[in-house]
């Protein structure tokens, strides 16, 4: 029987011969050292981004085999799994790169091209200078020489640092469900074991196990090749990360205050007597730590009994009782006798607290009602109640502690159990939040313009999977967006809405009033005042934001054509609905990130002094791809026809120069880009609709079960906002007619209804933004129109007069 194949893939700068010391020691596996494009002797040029490297890796490897990868190329393996689940039967990743990239010093140091080039030359010619980084033990001259030759041949070393950015490193990785084994060495000078907790949060749904190897550095296959091969071929899988005990262990490794604990599957574990004897006066908590508890999509908490204040003598019996009840893993933890304890629902922007005097069991047993408070960075509108200074614990101390726990788990919002013993705060549990109604502000504005109240299963699937990845593009100009870790859309009542907090958090940090945001996208927002001092400090950021967003516009066409090719290849290969839905999730991230860059360019465009060129709306005579609710690929389409992508409109030389120099007056041309972009998106959606196999359309294109029933803006916990949306004129004019017949009254503006808008005398919408696609269309049509949130429903069917943004009832 042929041995299974194990691929070996080292990190940046690597070559296949870096593995020469370890290869002879493998007995169970056939091994094959890989070189990606631009690495070693691979003749292909370096890839342009991480997605292209993932595709290259998939092309170089057979499905169903194992892979061992290191550093940045371990990240490439994860991108490959996100694209093609199940491709690798086993994935072992040593010290993967990708967590906290915006906070680490090395990526910042390597950002300037001259420094990258200088370091590359030094690694190539004088690798021994970096001996302390490579390993804690000395290598032979031949080994250093081999390392240097690998760096010298690596054309990808310099450009890869530019491609490896915080905004591109981790998209959609939280949806990986494959088995993944992560390993760190405690002597690793590159990436330490403190990152393990962050990766458990990033890979929230993976079947994740983590190994921590004493004495290992970043290159254990060179330091101790026989031991490395034996471990890789052995049966030591590491501990399960996504359990109560696993997360506590990871938090402790990251420096959090966790009471002494062990995760066990048997009372006969030899580690247990040592733990109990180490603190002879302590009592103990014995809790379940089942694999099905506290998962990213299902809490399933409280399924098993928790034993508190157990003396050491009864602990083994309690473990046996839980194991007999079907619990896979049991946590034995020193019992903390708190003066104050509670539960905190923690995100970077706010903390929602419940607490009681004494131990949390009083809350869990219903013996006492908790006190509650909401603390927020955003301001008074988001906060409620007050956490008092009690038993020596202040709100500032608790906030700092909880935010430290959050950072440990890569800022992924969590449910934290905490205890204060009068002298110290303790972490008793962290778990991801599967369902919670935050004090977060949501809106149907904007999303109601492009998606029906009950979108297809297909689009809702892609939207939910993409929501957490989309905002990362804004980290290119403000990395604080990654700490906020707010999704683009959030769920209320089973339906998706735009998450206002994502954008309002940036305005709060920049000192910008929230009224400007509400006017651009529509709806209403809680009060955020102008803060002149913050505004002045943010001026360099605004310049960077404008420069980066404008520059991104010129890359949209290549991205569109790349995804169009991928869709064509999937369709030609007979892709099923699930494959198309997963492709759409990646495409949706690209789509919305592109729109965010366009919106940012528009916001800083400084008017349209340089002209208003025609947009795609000027030529909609033969457009089968433009129809009501066109943004949902599940919307019925006409028969398939050839709709090639349109080239980015050419600009006069002077306009192109103004664009590159960041001059004002570009709004008209950026609107042209936006509508060109949308028109091409609809062409791809048209093809996507027809690519779905007929047999699967009834499932994927069926309406999502939950309806988006809320209009306007509201709080995610269900409370209505008290703010009133503002009305505004879209296009002037004076028209008289019957409301709902001659003068259309729309809940929102759908650009796919261009034929109806063209035929109407005027168009009134209850909700919409100044820069919405529908507003742009009505200006292009020169159609008298306005957004008027307070139109009296009793006027429908009656004669009304529209005059320059005002609507009045015609008496008589």
Give the strand line-up of the largest sheet: 2-1-3-4-5-6-7
Q: Give the beta-strand count.
A: 27
| Beginning-to-end CA distance, first to last residue | 93 Å
Nearest-angstrom radius of gyration? 29 Å
Main beta sheet: strand number and arrangement?
A: 7 strands, mixed
Overall morphology: globular
Describe the structure.
- With 812 residues, this protein is α/β, with parallel strands linked by helices.
- It folds into 4 domains: 5-240, Alpha/Beta hydrolase fold, catalytic domain (Rossmann fold, 3-Layer(aba) Sandwich), CATH 3.40.50.1820; 244-432, D-amino Acid Aminotransferase, Chain A, domain 1 (2-Layer Sandwich), CATH 3.30.470.20; 441-700, no CATH class; 727-809, Glucose Oxidase, domain 1 (3-Layer(bba) Sandwich), CATH 3.50.30.
- 36% of the residues lie in helices and 17% in strands.
- Strands 2-1-3-4-5-6-7 form a 7-stranded mixed sheet, with helices on one face. Strands 14-13-12-15-16 form a 5-stranded antiparallel sheet.
How is the secondary structure organized here?
Blueprint: E1 5-9, E2 30-33, H1 50-60, E3 65-70, H2 71-83, E4 88-94, H3 105-109, H4 113-125, H5 131-134, H6 141-153, H7 157-163, H8 166-169, E5 179-185, H9 196-202, E6 207-213, H10 220-223, H11 225-233, E7 239-240, H12 244-253, E8 261-264, H13 271-278, E9 284-288, E10 307-310, H14 315-324, E11 330-334, E12 340-346, E13 350-357, H15 361-364, E14 371-376, H16 395-408, E15 414-420, E16 425-432, E17 441-443, H17 447-450, H18 457-466, H19 480-484, E18 489-492, E19 495-499, H20 500-510, H21 514-521, H22 532-537, H23 539-553, H24 556-572, H25 577-603, H26 653-661, H27 667-691, H28 694-700, E20 713-715, E21 728-731, E22 734-738, E23 743-746, H29 754-759, E24 762-765, H30 773-781, E25 785-787, E26 799-803, E27 806-809
Parallel strand pairs: 1-2, 1-3, 3-4, 4-5, 5-6, 23-24, 24-25
Antiparallel strand pairs: 6-7, 8-11, 9-10, 9-11, 12-13, 12-15, 13-14, 15-16, 17-19, 17-20, 18-19, 21-25, 22-26, 26-27
Helix pairs in contact: 1-2, 4-6, 18-25, 23-25, 24-25, 24-27, 25-27
